[in-house]
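To close the chapter, one final illustration. This time we ask the reader to focus less on the individual chains and more on the assembly as a whole: which components sit near each other, and how the overall shape emerges from the parts.
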Amino acid sequence: MAEIIQEEKAGGKKKAKKHAPHIDMTPMVDLMCLLITFFMLTTAFSKAKIMEINLPEKIKDQNVEPPKISASRTLNIVLGPNNKLYYYPGSVKPEDFNSLPPLQETDYSATGIRTLLLERNRALFKKIDDFKNQVVTGKIVMVQDSVQKSISKLKTDDDTGPIVLIKAYKKATYGNFVDILDEMNICGIARYTFVDIAWYEEKMVETAAGIAPTTTPAKK
Amino acid sequence: MPKIKLPTKSPHIDMTPMVDLFSVVLTFLMLTTTMRQPEPAPVDTPSSISEKPTPDFNTMTLLLSKDNKVYLNFDNGPDTLLAFRPKILAEMGKRYNIEFTEAELTEFKKYPSSIGVPILKMKEFLDTKDNKQRLAIETGVPIDSTDNQLADWIYCTRTVNPNIQACIKGDAKTGFEVVKRVLDIMADKNVFKFNLITTLEAAKINLAEIQK
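The assembled structure is written out below.
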């Protein structure tokens, strides 16, 4: 610094102004505003999440019988039209299509299907919940991966929870489908799968929803 | 009474802190950004509690729009040299006896979004640069049993990249009939494992309350 001042004196030049030269920053601010707006609008902040689902393999060989499941543990959930949801326990044989059991109606809310599923799946859900609590409070120390494994082990070992068969009436929506699968995950249902709807079940939905039948039942 | 004289010079505002702040925000956005992919049809994905992130590679995404059209998207694989997309298109061309030029394959490779074009119009789609024309051609991948191009796409994709996973991205209002049809086609091609793309939503359950 001292040198510079000396030089100035020597040259007899005008003294440099004391205060820093003022730069007009407005255009810079304008530009930055534009860029920020652009990035804000084009950015996808959260990455989309995925939910995995495994469908049962199609039985192409006529001689192979589908696996048998106990009727007392079976719960059938039928996705109806207009965001309606129906369920019935047990199983229905195609033979008794004249005396079909009535469908019970419920909804996708926490007080609807979730309560029902938790009611039936209480033992397993409690086990999973206790286990998670123990992990959170530090009673059991393990890494996240083995936590997931232990939970799926609990699910495989379970033999009290319901076996849920999900069926969809053709007027249902994709949102309904995801909702019900999500509900299965929330309630920790160990065994659920998505199966094709049978014609008598379509009929049951049509009776319950009060809509005119659209298909003629295949007479046996 | 003398008036108070206001200074005629406009007051000077120091913008430096503002510029500093903007720089920080801008840097943050530039570093964290993942560009939102433009989709041919607006899709509102349903929400779920799943916290698994979408895989970056080896995915085949089926976009099911509200008006029951099916669009397809693949990625180029973990290494851009693998270039799965043009290979899939070439494979598809072989099946339908369509010869795609080098320029068309490159265009397909670079195309950032899902494509829902019948294969016979694919050439036209790739040659035109006009977005409006493209939109008019995009009528969805045919899934009828008479003209099941989706099945062929799946077959070609799996021959080119056997590790591919199927993702389904549907609008919450998409009718189930088309979903069922797509699932059936996939099942025919021995694809039984799906990833449903959803948005995250928190759900709380109070066990004690339910047990009352």
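The CA atoms of residues 131 and 137 of chain A lie 10 Å apart. Strands of chain A lie at 49-54, 74-79, 85-89, 104-106, 163-168, 191-194. With these observations in hand, you are ready for the problems at the end of the chapter.
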